[in-house]
Design brief:
heterodimer, A: alpha/beta, 5-stranded mixed beta sheet, 23 helices, globular, disordered C terminus, B: 195 residues, alpha+beta, 4-stranded mixed beta sheet, 8 helices, elongated
Chain lengths: 537, 195
């Protein structure tokens, strides 16, 4: 029997270290695997038995003796028994490409990676010309998974074609996963780091770059440690460095740590930060593909984009392209978070609706109260009311309702959420995290907080509402990057869909408690009649 | 930003808070008024020497200094500026831009509370208020006994099991007021054992 107990950040945060120690006390040395992303079941103890790989969860150290007893007799009799891991519906119904290996074994064990199709994509890439690799990526339909959704193959082609022969080029992995509700990048780095490394080597071969950097946020110390171990071992096994696997090509890889700045997730400020400067946004053009890191042609891709590359090369562009809908091809890493009963990582082809994810996988809120709002795509994403939960998860469908999928993070709020407070927070976050280069973002956000405060305090409300909308326009259309440009999304959506929280005239008579859980239309309708007279006073 | 700015003449710059134009560090004699020991000066100089050839060296260097000394003292600025051929303003600008870099000593433990949306949806606003009250400090401050510095953080990537708290390099999930108190009292207990 082999015992597995995860060592990813969430499993550790829920006490998996104590479980590992309890196993050791019982004379069992567990394999420290990465998590499968079923975080509601973490710490998830897995055991290989005659019945297959079975699971118990969520496990605490005190449960270990009784689990060992049950394993000797009837495992299914244990209260924490979850059956065969692969058959858990939450996992079984997923379409895992990028996370197919996550949680299967020791994430930094090279032999484990190789035994699970690891480096299959790289081996194929080594037989191909640079242009053939770029063509595979184009044919796959892969779009950047960082949020902007730009076609990856086009970006690679630009870098491939840029500069003179032999000019220095770079592959930069954006691992500054700063959006609230997102942990997909972290899970790749902690559960399957070689996949990312493999994708970056392939990217280097495709565009003629011999140096790569992973720009990692400092909030992920465990990912930092695991990536460095994985890179060292890949160098020793000659998958990195000079003359990779005897092919004559070179690729060096280094992890660089950010220093706690959300804006450095924006690709141009990330490049500035990598160059050792303040993370100030650059005006585009020139595109980083033409003038990127240290002024040289640079591929900047997200962790998930680069991780997907190894699958595309291994399984072929057509296989990847077969997943998804419309122009959103392949799979999306959906991260279910916030006030949710069964939070975790769900990899599915594009096209699943928000409601399916939240109700079928998430099983409703953690608090057991009704869901009120769902924020998708991080702190700059819109707050969606129930009427929009049937929107399919597809880049274009979300853009059509002034929302965004972004990096695929979903944060659920129950009916106690104060949406005016959330709108204010969106502005406040922009105050703290703006790089300060452009005025709409730097000053607009400060004024945004003030204006929302005045609205909620019923101070000259009508004029302040007009002012807030104008301020949002200025930020949206006048900012250099998405930080200022999209901060209005959560603000406007909160105003549009949850007006009673701002005590707007139409709803001034309805108290927050009364409206919680009630149909918004009913509330707004009843309140507008009730307060029509008050509005004239 | 043009390359020319990288090499701008530091003598033209106005002095920054905490260091005047004239306090060019003299490592051999040791400059006591800079507020750091000769050993610390030496280790900063050593680290500068170690990192200066690295492309984009400043962030890795600042992380290394902070790891060694606990913060990045003002006195490090001219040493770094000289070593990396940058102006002091540029070095100061980078240090002040990033939340991670501290210019004054911090507590023996850093406690970060996640303020991002997922944690808010699970009651982190109440947790923040509780933490500030229990510790008797606001964000950015250190308890009087020097044991804990409290900081906000925007997302620890543990959003499926919010609210999250990070203590040094360990993350804790589903932290409520009671759990917070246990974790913090655990810190003092550890120190008790260490003594």
């Amino acid at each position: 029997m082999i015992f597995y107990i995860p060592q990813d950040t969430t499993a550790l945060a829920l006490g998996s270290e104590a479980v590992a120690r309890a196993l050791q006390t019982a004379g069992i040395e567990p394999v420290r695997n990465g998590s499968r992303g079923l975080f509601w079941l973490e710490p998830l103890l897995e055991v290989t038995t005659d019945q297959g790989r079975i699971a118990f969860g969520p496990v605490a150290a005190k449960d270990i003796p009784s689990i060992i007893d049950a394993l000797a007799s009837d495992p299914a009799s244990h209260v924490l028994y979850q059956g065969e891991v692969a058959e858990i519906p939450y996992l079984k119904s997923q379409q895992r490409l990028t996370y197919a290996r996550a949680g299967l074994g020791d994430p930094v064990c090279l032999d484990n990676y190789k035994s699970l199709n690891g480096f299959k994509g790289l081996k194929k890439a080594l037989q191909m010309t640079a242009q053939q690799i770029v063509d595979q990526v184009k044919d796959s339909g892969l779009r950047g998974r960082g949020g902007a959704a730009f076609p990856a193959g086009i970006k690679w082609q630009t870098v491939h074609d840029a500069g003179k022969d032999g000019c220095q080029k770079y592959i930069v992995c954006n691992a500054d996963e700063g959006d609230s509700g997102t942990f997909a990048d972290r899970l790749v780095m902690e559960a399957d780091p070689y996949q990312l490394i493999e994708g970056m080597i392939i990217a280097g071969l495709a565009v003629g770059a011999d140096q790569g950097y992973i720009y990692l946020r400092s909030e992920y110390p465990l990912a930092h440690k695991l990536l460095n171990i994985a890179i060292d071992r890949a160098v020793q096994a000659n998958f990195l460095g000079e003359n990779i696997q005897g092919c004559g090509k070179t690729f060096h890889l280094e992890v660089r740590l950010g220093a706690g700045a959300y804006i450095c997730g924006e690709e141009t400020s990330l490049l500035e930060s990598l160059e050792g400067k303040r993370g100030m946004v650059r005006a585009k053009p020139p595109l980083p593909a033409i003038e990127g890191l240290f002024g040289m042609p640079t591929v900047v891709n997200n962790v998930l984009t680069l991780a997907a590359i190894s699958t595309i090369l291994a399984e072929g562009a057509a296989t990847y392209q077969n997943f998804g809908m419309g122009r959103s091809r392949g799979t999306l890493a959906i991260q279910l978070a916030g006030n949710i009963k069964c939070g975790g990582l769900i990899e599915l082809a594009f096209g699943v609706t928000l409601r399916e994810v939240v109700e079928d996988y998430g099983q409703g809120t953690y608090s057991g109260r009704p869901i009120r709002a769902i924020q998708v795509g991080g702190p700059l994403g819109a707050f969606l009311p129930e009427s929009q939960w049937d929107t399919p998860m597809d880049y274009e469908a979300f853009a059509a309702i002034k929302a965004m999928i972004g990096h695929g993070g979903i944060v659920v709020f129950d009916d106690t959420a104060d949406m005016a407070a959330q709108a204010r927070f969106a502005m406040e976050f922009c105050v703290v995290e703006s790089c300060g280069k452009c005025t709409p973002c730097r000053i607009g956000s400060v004024r945004g907080v003030e204006v929302i405060d005045r609205i909620v305090a019923n101070e000259n409300r009508d004029n302040n509402l007009i002012l807030l909308h104008e301020l949002c326009d200025t930020m949206e259309f006048g900012s250099l990057c998405a930080m200022g440009g999209m901060t209005p999304y959560p603000v406007r959506s909160a105003l549009a869909h949850f007006p009673q929280d701002f005590l707007l005239q139409e709803a001034a008579g309805a108290s927050l408690q009364d409206t919680a859980g009630a149909s918004l239309q009913d509330t707004a309708g009843a309140a507008s009649q009730e307060t029509a007279a008050q509005g004239e006073n | 930003m043009g390359k020319a700015e990288l090499c701008s003449d530091s003598a033209r710059l106005r002095p920054l808070a905490g260091c005047s134009i004239d306090d060019t560090p003299n490592i051999t004699t040791g400059v006591v008024e800079l507020g750091i020991s000769q050993n610390e000066q030496q280790s900063i100089s050593d680290l500068v020497g170690q990192y200066k050839a690295l492309p984009g060296a400043l962030l890795p260097l600042l992380h290394a200094i902070q790891k060694q000394i606990g913060h990045v003292p003002d006195a490090a600025v001219p040493i770094i500026a000289n070593g990396l051929n940058l102006s002091r303003a540029e070095v100061h600008g980078v240090i002040s831009f990033y939340h991670d870099f501290k210019t004054t000593p911090v507590g023996r433990h850093t406690v970060q509370i996640c303020r991002a949306e997922a944690c808010q949806s699970m009651g982190s606003r109440a947790l923040e208020a509780h933490a500030k009250q229990t510790l008797g400090i606001d964000y950015g401050e250190t308890t009087t006994d020097g044991s804990v510095t409290l900081e906000p953080v925007y997302c620890l990537g543990n959003c499926a099991c919010s609210p999250s708290v990070r203590i040094n390099d360990d993350v804790f999930a589903r932290v409520d007021a009671q759990r917070f108190d246990e974790l913090v009292s655990g810190l003092s207990a550890e120190e008790g054992v260490a003594k």
